[in-house]
Amino acid sequence: MSLKEQLFADLKTAMKEKDTVRKDTVQLIRSGILQIEKDKKIELDDEGVIDVISKQLKSRRDSLPDFEKSGRQDLIEKLNREIEILLSYLPEQLSETEIEAIVAEAVAQTGASNMKDMGKVMAIVTPKVKGRADNKVVGGLVKKMLQGK
Q: Known InterPro entries for this protein (predicted)?
């Protein structure tokens, strides 16, 4: 079953169970997919769908600190539930140790020695962690590793 079919099945289930947070989250994912498919006149495969989900996950994670500052506990709980739902559609997330190993391998492969080489390292690391790690975390680890040299 493709990811798009899974989303459609989950949408129907959420509607039957009256799970509004899941229903709304899945609808947002599906509308993002549809928007890209119409704009680019293509049919998204699972990898494209994962990109859409990753972007929505990043958006929600970026919003979380603002809600925490304003003390909106109701919105924080809803946002955490949406993040949990989005993560369920993504491949298993990499641990920090696994990301460090990928970054170390890329640094060795490129011969990177300072911050000027960050782009080279990220070009190798990004495809390997796509959909499985937050780019902020990856970028932070690359910086840390390059500054330590």
A: Asn/Gln_tRNA_amidoTrase-B-like, GatB_Yqey_C_2, YqeY/Aim41, YqeY/Aim41_N
